[in-house]
Design a protein that fits this description.
mainly beta; five-stranded parallel beta sheet; 0% helix; globular
């Protein structure tokens, strides 16, 4: 395996099955293609995350700094924030409330965050002050 230097932006694509990796933070993208991959200490990914295989475990992951594509079931008990877009094609339930800054795309999937069903939306519009409501598009409500 090639040595990855701390702070170096990398894309990591994993095809191995049932392996444990000791990363705590990844500066780059993580693409999981092998079933049963475990990252017991991974807290943040500063790039994109793509889960394409089943039974992956990321129990401490809190933040995805880019987009998140979910094509297989995974353990994501502590996920709090996705800074990019979220795309999901499987039925899944997140235990905690998650903030998604980008768009949400669900393809024939029922996704629950806490007890609430997530709906597909095209774009999140941030409203930080009451006066900004006047400038929102009128035809989207």
């Amino acid at each position: 395996m090639q040595k990855i230097l701390p702070g170096e932006y990398s894309s990591i694509e994993i095809y191995a099955k049932n392996m444990t990796f000791a990363f705590t933070e990844i500066e780059g993208n993580l693409l999981l293609r092998g079933e049963g991959c475990r990252f017991p200490d991974l807290v943040s990914i500063n790039g994109n995350l793509s889960i394409d295989a089943g039974n992956c475990e990321l129990p401490q992951l809190k933040t995805v700094g880019g987009s998140f594509a979910m094509h297989g079931p995974a353990m994501l008990d502590k996920l709090e924030k996705v800074k990019g877009d979220f795309k999901c094609i499987i039925n899944f339930g997140f235990k905690n409330v998650i903030k998604i800054d980008g768009s949400i795309e669900l393809k024939n999937a029922n996704v629950y965050i806490g007890n609430k069903k997530l709906s597909a939306i095209r774009r999140t519009i941030a409203v930080n002050h009451q006066y900004q409501v006047d400038f929102l598009p009128k035809d989207v409500f």
